[in-house]
Each structure stands twice: as structure tokens, then as C-alpha cells.
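Progress report, Aim 2. The chain analyzed during this reporting quarter is listed below.
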Amino acid sequence: MEKDLVTLTIDGQKVQAPKGTTILQAAKKAGIDIPTLCFLKEINEVGDCRMCIVEVEGRRGFATSCIQTVEEGMVVHTHSPNVLEARHVILDLIISNHSKDCLTCTRSGNCELQALANKFNISTIEFEGERTKHKIDDVSPSIVRDFNKCILCRRCVSACKKVQKVGAIDCINRGFESCISTAYDKSLNDVNCTNCGQCIQACPTGALHERENINDVWPKLKDPDTYVIVQTAPAVRVALGEEFGMPIGTNVTGKMVTALKRLGFNKVFDTNTGADFTIMEEANEFIDRFKANDNLPMITSCSPGWIKYIEMNYPELLPHLSSCKSPHEMFGALLKTYYAQKENIDPKKIYVVSVMPCIAKKFERQRTEMQNDGMYDVDAVITTRELSRMIKQANIEFTSLEDTNFDSPMGEATGAAAIFGTTGGVMEAALRTAQDVLTGQDLKKIDFEQVRGEQGIKRATVNIAGKELKVVAASGLANAQKIMEEIKSGKADYQFVEIMACPGGCIMGGGQPIKNSKIRSEVDVRKLRADSLYSIDEKSVIRKSHENPVIKKVYEDFLEKPGSEIAHKLLHTKYYKREKYNI
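Predicted C-alpha cells for the chain:
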């Protein structure tokens, strides 16, 4: 192994690094910080912005440290006067063509360009001149593009192309007219965008952000004639605290509920209860298909970004989808029927707000299929980030809040529902119920570690009721594509498939707190959030959806049984072929 090590000097410090290592990586190992902007580990390593330039003795010009590999005997200077002056000029040029409305920008305080400007003490712009003016694309229900704030780092392009293999955006035009856009420069709403929001997570500035719905919710909270109910997804509770400086993955369920009550919501319910209903319906649907050997493999349908992807790219495989609505849509339908009847509330006066880690839920909410008797199941979707902004607007000191429980009777959920927020969780929750139903026993082995973990694709064979069941859980649309191609070609022999649009599942959704490139390269954010959800599951008194007393009561009083006529009317839906482009 020693012969594969290269010895070099960085800022007077002897450093050893494996052959093929970049100067940036070697410097980081030695504790030397080199600023970056376009760099995103394993996603965008192209050296476009040049902020990471360094001097290498014996060479003319500067070396771009994020792509330049180390060499034996190399002498590197990362903070020489020439390097610092060049970086200052580069940053000045970037800012000169950037919208400077930082005070009103959604990324203020969490903008990598702003952070560098502060670090380099940019107080005046030397290269003032005519600035490129771009239109703002706000047609999509999920994503707003403001390329007046774009710095052409191409991180969003790489996330869309490499991570998701969708390719909805790319660089168009040349020179000063260059910008990131879509086919024919159309709105994201009219091209093959799946609304997953991974481009937002990759963006270092405010050029991409979610379509905000806060201003739809505030008036409803102030209206005495509107009964406003809020529900929160499992992934939100293990990420919201990060917006208030708490450690990544902290479970803030109790504080979150308290904050929501202080904001004025009439009832605060848990989408995990909706997830338990999803498992009841999905497990029942799977058992029926499995026994009849019909439309297998069955593929999960709770990720709206994934649903839009399959509608556009694999419409011939739509019969394999579960017909179940996603948990928050199921829950919204029940709140406007069962709960409204029980509490004697006019359903037309109920306004359901879903707090989600996912911006594709904004698109899903307004699908025509997601309504009953002329009313949408859910009236507004806000992200984890939007909820944090509402809490800050209300001047609530989040970290000082006491813990409060969800409201009854629709706030009780199981550990199975909690793990919905991470890849493999939906499958594991469904298998817990499916095995009990098929065996007629209360089985104690309920942890399916085979479908847990960080891998983008997790294949496993599990034994249920004496039968071998081949399953696969995939997260990220690039991995979904691989599984779909296996099924399409007839090479796959799975019976059950879970797909999540976002890599790692909902915990890494497009609406979750945004981490800068440095944190993303040093910390396994996905694991910290996932571990927190599994901890919630392990500490839960009830860990199987079919054992939830609220679920039992609603089926007994209202839904009759999983798969009943009324259950199908309220909790199931259909999906259709969708054109990729509306040109």
C-alpha cells in the first residue's frame, strides 16, 4: 500500500495521500480549508467556478484543486497573495452578475455565495456593469426558478442528470447569455421534471426554491370560520430541529407539535396515522395479488415524484403500481369524511395542511384524482423549511419549547409508520402486517434488516408463511430506472418493489433543510436522520400498523375492512400515462 501513497507539501506541511487523490481532498485530510462553490462531492466535480484554485510551484497559472490530482514532490500554496487576490476577483465577477436582494431571499443565512462574500470581506463590487436579466419561472406547483440568482455552477444539472437520470435541465446559450434552462426554454411544469427537488438541495444560492404556500395558510389560521388541521410526515420531525441549530437527526416531535399549536392550528395530527392506513390497504392489496399471482411485482405508490416519473417514462408498467394513495392524501380524505362526521364539522369548512419533506407533494395535492365529492383531500402542502419559516415569523423560540403530544383521536401511530420516512421503511412496515395476516399469528420477528441501509438498491429474499418472497427497495430515480428496466425486460422476478424518488427516501426530500457542500461531504446526513426514525420505531409500544387501536376503530366504525368499497373510494386512486413535454 505504501507505494500507492504520494508525498507532497501543502502550505509548508508534509502530506501523504493515495495516488489519484485531488489536491482538495489531500488538503482537507491535512486540515487545510480550500473554499469551493461549484464542487459537490461525487456529484459535481468539474472545476467550473475556480474558487478552489491554488498555486503549484514550477507551474504557470493556477491549478484547480477539486480536479487536479496530487503528484510526488508537488509543492502547493493554497493561501498565497496571488491566490487570495485571484479568488477575490473571481468572487467579485460572480457577484457582479447576481441579484443582490439577500434580505428577502429564501436562502439568506444559508447561501454558499453569501458565506464566501462574508469570508472574503466583499463590501463593494469592483466590476459593476449591465446585469443579465432572466425571467422567473413560477408556473410549477413545486419549484420556482429564479436564474437572476444563478451562478452557473451546474450543481443542479449534475443532480438531475447523474443522481436522478432525468435530465430536465441543462446549460443553454453561450457566453454572457448562458443560463440553466429546459428543453425549448419552457417552464419546468411543461417538461420532464418530476418535482423531486434534488436540484434545490444541490443549489448553493436561491436560484431554485420551493413554491411557497405559507401565505395560503396564514389567512386560514386567522379565519374563525375555517377549521384548520395540520398533519406532519415522519421525516419532518427528525430534520426540523436543524433549522434552529440543533444537531442533525434530532427528534423534535414534541416541540414541533407545541409550535404548531401556538401557530393556531385547531388540531395537530400525525401523518404516521395515515401511514398506518396505507399499510393496511397496501398489505391487503399485496396479499390479494400475491395469492392470485396478478400484476406482480406490486410497486409502492406513496412517492409522488416517483409516480410522475413512471407515468412519463414507463406507462406500460403502471398496472404494477399499488392503487393506494400516499399517507397524507389518505389521511386528508379521512379527516374530511370520518373525522368530520365524528366531530360534527362541515367538511367544506375543514382546511387540511400537510407538512412534508417533499416538494412533489405540492404537485400531488392538486392532482384531480386526489379529491372526493368536489373537495381536495389536502388543501395546502408546506415543506419542513416553510414550517421553520412560519415558526420564526411567529417569533417562537423553538428550542425552548416544552414537548406536547399529537391530538387525539387521529394522532396515534405505530413504529411501522415512523420508518416510512427512510428507504426500505414502507416495505418493512408492509411486511410486518403481511406476515401476520398470512400466518394468522402475532410474529415477534418484525425487523427486516435486509431492506435497511444506505445502498441505493437493496435486494432481499424473505420467508413469509413458508413462502419465499423476493423484494427490492430502490431510492433515487437513477436506481428506479435500473429496476424498471429489469421488470420491463422480464429479467426481474420480484414480487414486491419499493421505490422512493429521493436518494435515501423522504428524509432526504427536496423540502428538507439544505446542507452546504462542506457538511454534505463530511457528514452522513441520511444516516443520522434515518437512525433517528429507527429509534422512534424501536421505542414505540406498538410497532405493527394493524395493531393500532385508532386504525381498528376507524375500520370498525367506518371503513369496514381493508379493500372495502368505501376504502377504495377514499383511499385508492388511479394513475395515467403522462407526456414528458408540453411543447
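Residues 2-93 form a domain with the Ubiquitin-like (UB roll) fold (CATH 3.10.20.740). The chain has a mean pLDDT of 94. These observations will guide the mutagenesis work planned for the next reporting period.
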